[in-house]
Amino acid sequence: MNFFKLARLFISRNIREEKFLTLLSVIGVALGIGLFIGVKVASDRAISSFESDIEGLNSGANYEISDTSGIDFSDRIYPMVASVQINSFPFLKAAAYLPGLRDTIDINGIYAVKSIRRVRGVNADLHDMESFYRTLNGILVTNDFAVRHAIKKDDTLRAFVYDREYTLQIAGLIESGSMPSNTAIMDIGNFQEYFGRAGFLSGIDLMTDAYTAGRIQKILPPALSTEKKKLLIENQKSMLASFRYNLQFVSLIAILVGVFLLYNTIFISVVKRRTEIGILRALGADKKTVVMLFVIHGILLGLVGSLFGLLLGQCAAYFSVMAVTKTISSMYSAISITDYLIGKNDVVSALVLGFCISLAASLVPSFEASRIRPNESAKAGTFEAGYKSRRKLFPLAGVILIIMGLAGAYIDYRAMPFSFPFLAYAGILLILLGFTLTAPLYFSTVLKMLKKPAAVFGVTATLAWGDMRGSTYRFSVALMSVAISTSLIIALFILIFSFRNSLKSWITRNIVSDIYIKPISCASNFCFFPLSDDISSVVKSFTEVKGIDRFRTLHLDFHGRKIVAGFGDIAAQMLYAPRNYDRDTEKRDGGLLRGQQVSISNYLSIKYGLKPGDRITLQTPGGPRSFTIYTTFSSYSTTSGFIYLDRKWLKKFWGLDDATQIAVYLNSGVDIDKFAAKLRDALSRRYSVEVMNNRELREKVLAIFNKSFAITYAIELISIIVSLIGVVNTLLALVLERKREISIIRYLGGSWEQIERMLVLSAGVVGISGIAMGALIGPIMSSIFIQVINKISFGWEIHLSIPAIYLTAVILILLLSTLAAGLIPARVARRTDPKRFISFE
Amino acid sequence: MIILENVEKSYDGTRVLNGIDLEVETGDFISIMGSSGSGKSTLLNLIGAMDLPESGSITVDGENIVSYTDEQLTLYRRKKIGFIFQFFNLFPNITVFENIQIPLLLNGIGDDRSVTEFISLVGLEGKEHAYPYQLSGGQQQRVAIARALIHNPDIVLADEPTGSLDSMNSESIMELITRLTDEMKKTVILVTHENSIAQQARRHVSIRDGVLYG
Questions:
Q1: Residues in contact with A231: Cβ distance below 8 Å, sequence separation at least 6, in sequence order
Q2: Would you say residue A385 has pLDDT above 60?
Q3: What is the mean pLDDT of residues A774-787?
């Protein structure tokens, strides 16, 4: 037997005969894959951006010396290090915001004489290096950046660096290669002089081995550490991991809907072709051949869907990157992603995913097809009847899986055996699988319950119920795709609504001052370069100002990871902000003023099993210092762990008294907006700072929140579309298979409108059943997302809130959409020529 | 009364019916005998308003159905016609009771009692809740006969009603059709290629190459 000829004959004919059905399946798979790839590209590029940032410009450098607090350190360290390892490359780094271009660049001040040839993408012979060295404010920018912003050599750019305004001159262009395109290079001497950073370094890159790195560490002061770049990259990746996996998991659920769609298509093909399968078997085809025919059919659809999914994924990547960039920049550190193009890895991922889901979707129906006996084909209706009798165990298995899923999520909630919520994620999948197995029994029960009320629809109901009863299994597959997309929508709605409410409460408690000041060049929630001391003096000189809280952030090394420490002037807060003061915050602040105490974010508490009363050790320039945990709190402004302390410890243990952000409290009766404008005007003459009033900052925080969830809205929309395609798919297949019955109805005097009503009624029953099941699964999923996954992943305390009105509206829209989905097959039914399907001879 | 005058019909350029003239009185039982491809099924489709002739007229009780709209044709079939097919053409996913009930429901009648009576009439007591795949060929055809008559149509169109049955079942089915249509005074047009079946009608015509004889 020539299998390939047989496969070509069988499969190509299937596809030709079921063009629309095939198209729907391909679209469903494409949408799911496109979404997954879009999210993947965005998170991959974000990680690459961090990697490039850590790798630095010195190709081959495998170690980095930096201050554990993330602040610049004395450049007197460099000669000491160079005497041990000649391949050491000092650098200074600063972010610059370019208001004319509405973009940021990362200025890297490098020891150009020593390391310019090592910098990736720089061909020192081709550039006017004299111009580069001689021009104090000269920078090299990448070709990509220059093309994007239509700038060229010798152009000047207005830039906000640290808290001042500067002018930068383009001294030359370089190839970006693997560098982020927003990289700029400056000679370190010029950098120090021009930006007033003489005597400082941000870090030293090393090309060395572990032994020498160990030797170097011994000669460094305690505040500095020598870290392997690979480890730094891994740490950064693990910080992003939770964010990334959360998004990808949600997009995977959207793909699940596509899996049901494909499953349905193959199953329908099997049912339609049972006579042919029987004949094939009678002619001597073995079971393996039958399985392979349908599996290949499924895989073909999956792969074609993947290819289209790549095209969609490219579009999705653009929007995902924008959303992800904003979120990561505010929560972690500023990144700039300009590469939206999907790469070879993404293509492979899409094809592998397409292959896997099509295999998963087609295996079961293919094996069912192989079980068809030649004589079974003669009697219509025997297939489903035979199926029903063999599948009594399904509901039992389904219940067991649901219980297992709930148990897994509960174990993570209570015990958190792993630092990553594996059991909770697996629990959601088990719950969905469990409900899938119970779907046929559930659907049969719904049909029984609704039969009497449906009698008002007369013959339409009789015929529709007959069809649905006779094809329970098939209809329950469509039901599940509606249920899963409904549950996903409900779960995400509840999550977003709850999160937004919790965030608003958090904002009310924490954003209490009238005005906030930070450098314009700082895009993140936390800034790390100090503001000029003069700024505080200028602010305090205004009579409208009651008081200020000078806030400082540092990076800290905590259990091998970089976290954020925030030092606030707690006494000032307690003095100046009583009317907005939250009781819990007041209690916390009182505690932090007494004794050597800190408050830690829930993320650290969960990750390291820390609670109030425990002692922790923080590395300071003067050595390790022990603190007692006074309270824990929810922090939405970062997901990398946050410790809050009073400013007195900053001076005592870090020797610093500066501030990276300033909160301003005004006297009562002062017009906040007017004063903000006045302050902006006063400061802008010398400094480049952002002055926001309380309202503006709250709006900004909520805007970032909304943008972060833009991807989830896209996921919801796509899963609705795919599930509606599933309903159309099922009913369309029904029409194609039931052409004979439709013809009989016409012979008996049934009108097209009655046939249409029958299909719409079937769509409605599938819709109601699916939505009802989804309304049960959705809150379970959202509880797991809120109470377990987000808590373990990010340490976010989110209080459950149910948006009843929104959910009701969404459910109504879904129901109307599924009813409308019945109209498409009805249109196809009208094209039936009854004479063709009533066999007279 | 059914009158066909000079009815012609072609499919894909092939003339299937060639100037058919036929008169069937009310209550008549006529058989049309012809071999495969002779045009007998096409003739039945035209009388049953499932298709329209290219030329000629089909008058049923004084009304020319050729000029009917689709809605009128649908209504005509619903009220006046009962079909019996060679391969039964029952709905596989509903019970015997529901299959027979369909024409009543299409006509907006919810009379369960008459369905039960017809089930008895065709000798299928106890099979109300069975599905077609659970019945033999003969039993399925009995269901089809009940369905064809339940809504009290004027005309019964039977196409090879015994074509899928063995001789014993064929006999009993023909006996059932003849008895019931006689009792209910229906006009019956039966097409067949078997002489023995055709002879059981009161009037016989034959069709060959789209032309009626006899």
A1: A560
A2: no
A3: 93
In whole angstroms, what is the distance from residue A399 CA to residue A393 CA? 10
Instruction: Report angle CA A704, A706, A711 to the nearest 5 degrees.
Output: 110
What percentage of chain A carries pLDDT values higher than 70? 94
Strand-strand pairing, B63-64 and A689-693:
unpaired
Instruction: Please answer yes or no on whether A471 and B83 come within 8 Å at the CB atom.
Output: no
- pLDDT, tens digit (0-9, with 9 covering 90-100), for A487-546: 988 998 898 899 889 888 888 888 889 999 999 888 777 888 889 888 999 999 999 999
Average pLDDT over residues A683-710: 86
Please report residues of B whose CB lies closer than 8 A to that of A471: 93
Q: Is A688 in contact with A519 (CB distance < 8 Å)?
A: yes
Rounded Cα distance between B130 and A219, Å, is 92
To the nearest 5 percent, what fractions of chain A are helix, strand and coil? 60, 15, 20
Alpha carbon separation from A459 to A328, A465, A466, A745, B86 (Å, rounded): 58, 10, 10, 10, 24
Q: Is the pLDDT of residue A131 over 60?
A: yes
- Give dist(CA A726, CA A832) in Å, integer: 22
Rounded to 10 degrees, what is the CA torsion of A680, A683, A688, A691? -30
Stated as kind and residue range, the H or E segment containing A244 is helix A229-272
More confident residue, A542 or A261: A542
Q: Is the pTM of this model over 0.90?
A: no
Q: What is the pLDDT of residue A372?
A: 73
Q: Which residues of A399-430 are buried (b: 16+ CB within 10 A; e: fewer)?
A: eebbebbbebbbbbbeebeeebbebbbebbbb
- At residue A380, φ and ψ (nearest 5 deg) are -65, 145
- Structural domains present in chain B: 2-213 (3.40.50.300)
Which of B:169-188 have CB within 8 Å of A?
none
Say yes or no: B79 contacts chain A, CB-CB below 8 A: yes
B181 is written with which tokens?
A: 């249509």
* Most confident by average pLDDT, A337-346, A385-394, A597-606: A597-606
A816 versus A233: which is more confidently predicted?
Answer: A816
Residue with tokens 């969830």: A709
Structure tokens at B22: 């036929």
Place of tokens 């529709």: A464
Q: Residue A127 corresponds to which tokens in the numbers above?
A: 């550039």
The pair of structure tokens assigned to A664 is 């301003």
Q: Which residue of A has its CA nearest to B108?
A: A458
**Which amino acid appears at position A695 of this protein?**
R
Report chain B residues whose CB lies below 8 A from the CB of A748.
Answer: 77-78, 83, 102-103, 106, 147
Residue A840 to residue B86, Cβ atoms within 8 A = yes
At residue A127 the predicted structure's pLDDT band, cuts being 50, 70 and 90, is: low
Measured from the Cβ of residue A621, the count of other Cβ atoms closer than 10 Å reads 17
Residue B103: which of B129, B77, B123 has the closest Cα? B77
Q: List the end-to-end C-alpha distance of chain A, in Å, as a whole number.
A: 33
B156: left (phi over 0), alpha (psi -120 to 50) or beta: beta
What is the rounded distance in angstroms from the CA atom of residue A14 to the CA atom of residue A12?
Answer: 5
Asked whether A530 and A552 are in contact (CB, 8 A), the reply is: yes
| Residues 733-772 in A contacting B (C-alpha not used; CB under 8 Å) | 740-741, 744-751, 754
